[in-house]
Amino acid sequence: MKPGARRIGIIGHGAIGARVAADIAAGKVKGATLEGIICRSAIDNAPAPQLEMQQALERCDLLVECAGQEVLVEHGEAVLSAGVDLLATSLGALADPHLSQQLSAAGPGRLFLTPGSIGGLDLLASGARATGYDAVRITTTKLPGSLIQPWMDEVEADRIRNTAGPIEIFAGSAARATQLFPKSLNVAAAVALAVDDWDAVAVSVRADPAAELTTHLIEASGNSGNYRFEICNKVSPQNPRTSGVVPFAVLRSLELIIGARGGMI
Question: Is 134 helix (H, G, I), strand (E, B) or coil?
């Protein structure tokens, strides 16, 4: 390990975690060294040793969560209480006010949140801090297959799977959206966290068989101005439920946490 390097552990080795781990192992994140990977299943040709959670807490300075909301529920408080920083990607878990308060109170480790596949959150947060908003809305459009959930009955699943055109399959608050679509709507959670109001953010989820790109349309209006952002991402080749840009958003967030370079924040 290089002197002064932050020892990083990656939780999960799927579409996001594998790329993040590979780039750290290859020396592409200045000031970071890959200490290990925490994963329930064995990894072939892993770029670092596989660790149990307790081992990771003893050996790492910072853990990067790339494995789903249940990680924050099961381990978030323990990680922070051990003095280990935590960079989270599964922001929907924070829709639970009890968990959110629990993690906010935990320490001395720090909880960081990555914006994932969307931008504009800095401006949204600034406007919310200045005067608040009259309305905030995010409309997400994805391929039908990526939106089918275990809680749906067969009639609804078939309606989505076989639709010939765009259809709305959910309309409600960001809090409810992230509960019902835990692996598909971290973007709604990110917007809600940026404006600090889970219930005020209206979410519309649409399935479209012609959606070559995953689209997020974010609209906000208030005394500070009217904002409209449209983000169109290519899906990850490894996981159609997430956007291909997400691992690189995680890597950028990691660089900012480490503080190895100046620049845009």
Answer: coil
